[in-house]
Design a protein that fits this description.
The chain is an alpha+beta fold and about 100 residues long. It contains three helices and five strands; from the N terminus they run E-E-H-E-H-E-E-H. The protein has one domain: Gcn5-related N-acetyltransferase (GNAT) (Aminopeptidase), CATH 3.40.630.30. Helix 1 links the parallel strand 2 and strand 3. The chain is globular. GO terms for molecular function: acyltransferase activity, transferring groups other than amino-acyl groups. This is N-acetyltransferase domain-containing protein. InterPro entries: Acyl_CoA_acyltransferase (IPR016181), GNAT_dom (IPR000182), N-acetyltransferase (IPR051531). It comes from Flavonifractor plautii (Fusobacterium plautii).
């Protein structure tokens, strides 16, 4: 997790994940992200969590949706590791939303 988003009006953390291709399709990431969200809100007292995916990564988008996160914004970002720019879509969940 990384703290840097302020668009929700409260300090928030960002969740990131990746998984070896031979482990795809086993439901591991949604299970892990759900537990990270539970731990962040219930045990650590975080108020908001973000996650983002690059345009075209439908599986990552689906993970965020399965975990109760909702779309918040999109923006073009520099991806330094790749030396290019990409359209990133941000999803988030607040503690209040998670408690419902």
């Amino acid at each position: 997790m990384d703290r840097h988003r302020t668009e929700l009006g409260t300090p928030s953390e960002e969740i990131g994940y990746s998984l070896a291709r031979d482990c795809w399709g086993q439901g591991l990431i949604p299970e892990a992200v759900k537990e990270i969200i539970r731990h962040a809100f219930a045990d650590l007292g975080y108020q908001a969590l973000w996650a983002a995916y690059y345009d075209g990564n439908r599986k990552s988008k689906r993970v965020m949706q399965k975990c109760g996160m909702t779309y918040r914004l999109s923006r073009i970002e520099a991806v330094e590791q790749l030396g290019e720019t990409r359209l990133a879509h941000y999803f988030a969940a607040t503690r209040r939303e998670w408690e419902r």
